[in-house]
Each structure stands twice: as C-alpha cells, then as structure tokens.
Amino acid sequence: MPVVATPSAHWIEIFRTDKGSVYQCDRTSRLILEFWDTHTAFSARDFAQFRRMVDTVDVRQMALSTDSEYDVEILTPPRSERCYVLTLCEVVHLRELLNGAQLMLELNSMLRECGCSLA
Questions:
Q1: Which of 13, 54, 74, 107 is least enclosed by beta carbons within 10 angstroms?
Q2: What string of DSSP letters covers 44-82?
Q3: Cα–Cα distances in Å, from 107 out to 56, 103, 115, 118?
Q4: Do 42 and 30 touch, CB atoms closer than 8 A?
C-alpha cells in the first residue's frame, strides 16, 4: 500500500528520534514508519512483528564479527515489498525508534483504560 511522502492531517505522531518517526493514521488505522526519508505503512500486528524482527537482530555478533556477512542485516517488513539493508548503527537506531513507539502506544492504551488521555 503506497503512502504519501509527507504526513497528512490524519497522521498523529507517536514517537520521534533524530533518525525517524512513527505516526498513527486515524483514517486507515495504520502505523506509518518514517525511516530513511521513506514511509512504510503497517497494521498493528505487522508493526509488532517487524519490531520483534528488528529486536532479534544480533547486534553483538554484528559488532564483534569481522566476517563480511555480518556487515549488514537485510529485513523485509511483513506484507511489504520494501526491504531494509541496515548497518549496525542503523539497526540500533531503528530498534530505538520502534521500541519507543511501542512504549508510547502501550502508555496511551493504559491511560485510556484509566479514563485519561495524552491530548
């Protein structure tokens, strides 16, 4: 599913780092990952699956190995034609972005359960 290159009025920023952002689209009920100046739309389930995929990358092995096979990690998000070819630093940055967004989604859910909101 193509996503426009700029955030629309329907996008709510969930979490941001200096390397990217995660938005939630009210209209489509999707999460949009902005990373490397590209946008990838996810269902909530696919977002969680991609986050787990990024979390399972063995960054220690990437850092310590001198073998060229550990120079990059290739990840394909679920139900997407996009492919991310990530260096060690990029894996760490993406992991920070995805985990921060997940934490904010969980916090917002807990606040809603208590009858509160962030807005």
A1: 74
A2: HHHHHHHHHHHHTS-HHHHHH--SGGGS-EEE--TT-S-
A3: 23, 6, 12, 9
A4: yes
Predicted model pTM: 0.85
CATH of domain 11-113: 2.30.31
Q: What is the pLDDT of residues 69-90, one digit of tens each?
A: 889 999 999 999 899 999 999 9
What are the residue boundaries of the structural domains of the chain, listed by start? 11-113
Please identify which residue in the block is written with the tokens 């139900």.
Answer: 79
The residues facing 70 across adjacent strands are none
Q: What are phi and psi of 24, to 5 degrees?
A: -115, 130
